[in-house]
Design goal:
The protein has about 475 residues and is of the alpha/beta class. It contains 20 helices and 13 strands. The protein is globular and about 65 Å long. An 8-stranded parallel β-barrel has the order 6-7-8-9-10-11-12-13, surrounded by 5 helices. A 3-stranded parallel β-sheet has the order 1-2-3, with helices on one face. The protein has a two-stranded antiparallel ribbon with strand order 4-5. Helix 3 links the parallel strand 2 and strand 3. Helix 7 crosses helix 9 and helix 17 packs antiparallel against helix 18. Helices cover about 45% and strands about 15% of the residues. Magnesium ion binds next to helix 13.
Length: about 475
């Protein structure tokens, strides 16, 4: 049909069809709302927007046949501390209704009908995790400082309202990445400027006076809005992030105006632009941000011009990092996308998940080059991809000279515990040793050996999981 709205109603019909089919196959209908018992959600293709349909306090695990550990649904699950296995390709997922199951998010294994012995082993892992959690609790108000007194900022990545308390409880020093697409995904239409203002204000107020970095809408790729479908052959190379919002100025302007209004009297807003691949995008976005700021100020709000930064997540931006540094106030490396684009490995495709490696020497060199290229530019650098929340990645990023790391609140205490047990010299030495290696696996193994020697392996993952593999 011509009309895009009506055309999209095809999705509703398809959904209805699926439900009828499910009845014909005598499957129980969707139970998302009546869940009273703890459950593991198993599906062919779990998506970030699906998570919004479940009462998350009941969800104890997720298993998806499609996708990989760097898919957005996996990132959200990690942020919520839900063990998840992605890319379970041979799983007979439709035959697992009501089956007892263990999901090991550390190793990516699933055990159906587990024996008592396996249940006991995993209970010990759970107990060990709880013990570590209580150790971490004591670090909450301590700075992230190496044994020789070097400070590194630990920020959080947020998306949901619930992230605020979770992050403050864990000692976050600010928000390094607020993914605005999350509140957009759990609605059935675009939130209005006034609604957005309210949503953003909760984040800004929750963390004030600490800085909150709000990223403009990064839809496309594997993040679809149900009411704004984008159908493309190559979604990760297509209409995504800043490309969408600069083509839809009404979306961009409403969002920026809402962010700036929300910061009134708080002055802790930073705006970050995703998927930047050339300087023209930054120039255009900056001029729109200046215009929005002037309008909001004119309307009488007590606001200051926010700091503006870009994500470095496309290889082109790595090679133009010096020019970009001269234009913006801060830069944050999105290592999830940078890995996908440098290695040409779709982060959502389970078939090539084995090739997706943040410890690939090319990724490490790019990260290191960003620091080298921007020395003397007076720019603040951070990493906000999942690598920053992996203690091994965090050690390397700190040693390279980044100012802050931004990660899920689940990862933060662990990263802090590990970095506080090392000297900067030790971290630099580890970096020097792995930078000369040619294989990603060698980098990972060497790092594991080095953390074992440094006596911090216990903090990284429960000894039982290592023993089970
Ligand atoms: C990244 O790409 O590393 C990042 C932080 O952004 P996202 O995961 O939302 O694409
Ligand atoms: Mg990204």
């Amino acid at each position: 049909m011509e009309d895009p709205y009506l055309r999209e109603r095809a999705t509703d019909i398809r959904d209805l069809g699926r439900r009828i089919l499910s009845h014909l196959q005598e499957k129980t209908p969707s139970v998302t709302e009546e869940l009273t018992e703890p459950v593991i959600i198993v599906g062919e293709e779990l998506t970030a927007s699906m998570l919004g349909e479940f009462p998350l306090d009941k969800v104890k695990g997720l298993v998806s046949v499609m996708g990989s550990s760097s898919s957005h649904v996996a990132i959200l699950a990690r942020a919520m501390g839900i063990p998840t296995v992605m890319g379970a390709v041979d799983l007979p997922y439709s035959k697992l209704d009501k089956v007892d199951m263990i999901v090991d998010g550390y190793s990516g294994q699933i055990f159906t009908y587990p024996s008592d012995a396996i249940i006991d082993s995993y209970q010990q892992i759970v107990d060990e995790e709880r013990l570590l959690e209580s150790e971490y609790e004591q670090l909450k108000d301590l700075p992230c400082e190496t044994l020789d007194g070097q400070r590194i900022g630990l920020y959080v990545n947020t998306g949901l309202l619930a992230d605020i308390n979770r992050s403050l409880d864990r000692g976050a020093e600010g928000v390094g990445l607020y993914r605005t697409e999350v509140p957009f995904m759990i609605r059935d239409r675009f939130p209005t400027e006034a609604e957005q203002e309210q949503i953003y204000r909760q984040q800004l107020q929750g963390f004030a006076p600490a800085p909150v970095t709000i990223r403009t809408l990064d839809v496309g790729g594997d993040k679809a809005l149900p009411y704004f479908p984008i159908k493309e052959e190559n979604p990760f190379l297509g209409w995504r992030g800043i490309r969408v919002t600069l083509d839809h100025l009404e979306i961009f302007m409403a969002q920026i105006r809402a962010m700036i209004k929300a910061s009134a009297g708080l002055h802790n807003l930073k705006i970050m632009l995703p998927m930047i691949s050339n300087v023209a995008e930054v120039e255009e976005a900056q001029s729109l941000i200046r215009r929005a700021y002037a309008e909001v100020k004119e309307e009488g709000y007590d606001v200051i011009m926010p700091k503006v930064g870009v994500m470095i997540e496309v290889p082109a931006a790595v090679y133009q990092v010096k020019e970009l540094a001269g234009m913006v106030d801060f830069m944050s490396v999105g290592s999830n996308d940078l890995t996908q684009y440098l290695l040409a490995v779709d982060r959502n495709n389970s078939r090539v998940a084995g090739l997706y490696h943040t410890f690939h020497p090319a990724v490490l060199r790019a990260l290191n080059d960003i620091v080298e290229q921007t020395k003397g530019e007076g720019i603040k650098l951070s990493v906000c991809g999942e690598m920053a929340g992996d203690p091994l990645g965090a050690i390397l990023i700190m040693a390279m000279g980044y100012d802050t790391l931004s990660m899920s609140s689940t990862s933060l205490p662990k990263v802090k515990a590990v970095l506080r047990k090392l000297t900067m010299e030790q971290a630099e030495d580890m970096l020097a040793q792995v930078m000369s290696l040619a294989h990603a696996d060698a980098v990972k193994q060497t790092l594991m050996k080095l953390v074992r020697e440094a006596g911090v392996e216990r903090l990284i993952r429960p000894s039982k999981t290592a023993a089970l593999q």
